[in-house]
Structure formats: structure tokens, C-alpha cells
UniProtKB/TrEMBL annotation:
This is 3-hydroxyacyl-[acyl-carrier-protein] dehydratase. It comes from the Bacteria. Involved in unsaturated fatty acids biosynthesis. Catalyzes the dehydration of short chain beta-hydroxyacyl-ACPs and long chain saturated and unsaturated beta-hydroxyacyl-ACPs. One of its GO terms (biological process) is lipid A biosynthetic process. The keyword Cytoplasm applies. Its main location: cytoplasm. Transmembrane segments: none annotated. Keywords: Cytoplasm, Lipid A biosynthesis, Lipid biosynthesis, Lipid metabolism, Lyase. Gene3D superfamilies: Hotdog Thioesterase. Pfam families: FabA.
């Protein structure tokens, strides 16, 4: 059962369709750890051109999904409410298996460091319990947004 649905996710991070790339949050410990889920539908816009006849999830989008999950983890902390988390770096990224339409990605991010406005998270994406991608994501927390 989801802890956060899409509407609740949208209340935390500023991403919107077509670039809100997580469907639900399954587990959340603000400032520590998050587990989110993405159902990869056949009609996702990127599958049409990557690659026709053999659609594969672009690795960069898997990293973006992990970053969005990590942003939920950080921005759900009261002191960061209403702010934006920006990508500042990706290290040690590895892609272990192709991700295809119909797969369900489980996106887990554990925060390793969190300072005033910079953080680092250990990110892992799995499909059916098997590693699909891993990396260390660095993010910067921007100023409060006026919406």
C-alpha cells in the first residue's frame, strides 16, 4: 500500500506530467530513506524513439526517477517544505540490466549526507528484485519557491 500517491507527491516536489516520473511512494523516512515505484507503461513517451522495435528505458531517466524519489525524501522534511532539490551530480552510476515497457521499477534512495543545502544519496533501482541501476546522487536544495 502506498504511503503517498501522485497527488501527495505533487504536494512535495514541483515536477508535473509529463515529467513527474514516480507513481507512488511505498516507504518514507523524511531525511533518511525513501522507496518509490514507477510502473513503465507501453505508451511512455520515451519508448517510441528509444528504440523502435526494441524499446528500452533510457538510463538517464532511471537516474531522474531515483532523483525525484530522493527529492521527496528531502523535501518532506519540514525545514525544506516548498523548496526544490536540483541535481548537482551523479557518481558511480552503473546499469545492470535493460528496463523494458511493462516493468515496475522500485526506486530506493538512502541519504548518506545532508548539510544545509547539499546532500548525497545512495540510489538503487530494481525490477523483480534484481538490480537495474545504481548510483550516488548529489543534490542542491534551492530557495523557497513562491507558487
Amino acid at each position: 500500500m502506498a504511503v503517498l500517491d501522485k497527488k501527495a507527491i505533487e504536494a512535495i516536489i514541483p515536477h508535473r506530467d509529463p515529467f513527474l516520473l514516480i507513481d507512488e511512494v511505498l516507504e518514507l523516512e523524511p531525511g533518511k530513506r525513501v522507496v518509490a515505484k514507477k510502473y513503465l507503461k507501453e505508451d511512455e513517451f520515451w519508448f517510441k524513439g528509444h528504440f523502435p522495435g526494441y524499446p528500452i528505458q533510457p538510463g538517464v531517466l532511471t537516474m531522474e526517477m531515483l532523483a525525484q524519489a530522493g527529492a521527496v525524501c528531502v523535501l518532506s522534511m519540514p525545514e525544506f517544505k516548498g523548496r526544490t532539490a536540483f541535481f548537482a551530480g551523479i557518481d558511480k552510476a552503473r546499469f545492470h540490466r535493460p528496463v523494458r515497457p511493462g516493468d515496475t521499477l522500485i526506486l530506493e534512495v538512502e541519504l548518506l549526507k545532508l548539510r544545509t543545502s547539499i546532500g548525497v544519496g545512495k540510489a538503487t533501482a530494481t525490477v523483480d528484485g534484481k538490480k537495474a541501476a545504481v548510483g550516488e546522487i548529489t543534490f542542491a536544495i534551492g530557495p523557497k519557491q513562491d507558487n
